[in-house]
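Study this fold:
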Amino acid sequence: MSHSERQVRAHAFYHSYLYKCRCMGIFMKFGRFLICILRPLFYLLFPYKVKGSDNIPENNEGRLILCSNHISNIDPVFLLMAFKSRPIFYMAKAELFANKLAIWFFQKQFGAFPVRRGQGDAASLETAERIVCEGKLMGIFPEGTRSKDGKLGRVKSGAALIASRTGASILPVAIKTTNQKVALFRKTHIIIGKPITPDELHLQDHEKPELRYASRIIMERIAKMMEEDA
């Protein structure tokens, strides 16, 4: 077996093992406890307001993928704070999991899992599909990276692909603040929209899903929400 084949197998095993552990609830209890403890301090430093909480389906009520714009490094924390009743399993760039401490924090405590961007990461895609199919809430930033100027960037097709394979709806979320620059003591608004069904996204045909169309609709919905009064 070649070195590259061993790496692929190890990567797949790693995803499978961590996914099973998360589903058994071994790792994430401390992470949820930490969120509860730090919420008042986080709110004091980075005040936020949530609009549209009633659009969040109840736990395990249908398959769902959270899609949000990405303007700061603490966007995942804002969303974890906003979604009090539902843990979010994030698909995050592999660079965040560079050492054991990062793996312990992001992966074991908060359910994030790495994706190797631009490399067709089949193991990450399989993990994402399993999470969604079990009724857990998966979070993804469709742009694939943080926006440097706060404007919506070019959308990737990952969210639409996972939705087409799982029959999941998309829950659009807009994060907005003054000049789209998150800063200490500056209020950030988190706007949660109504779920977008696979039919609305033209993903009902699993053989030929319209991924480009679906991706565009997701970002157009987020853009429209960003124009709303928070």
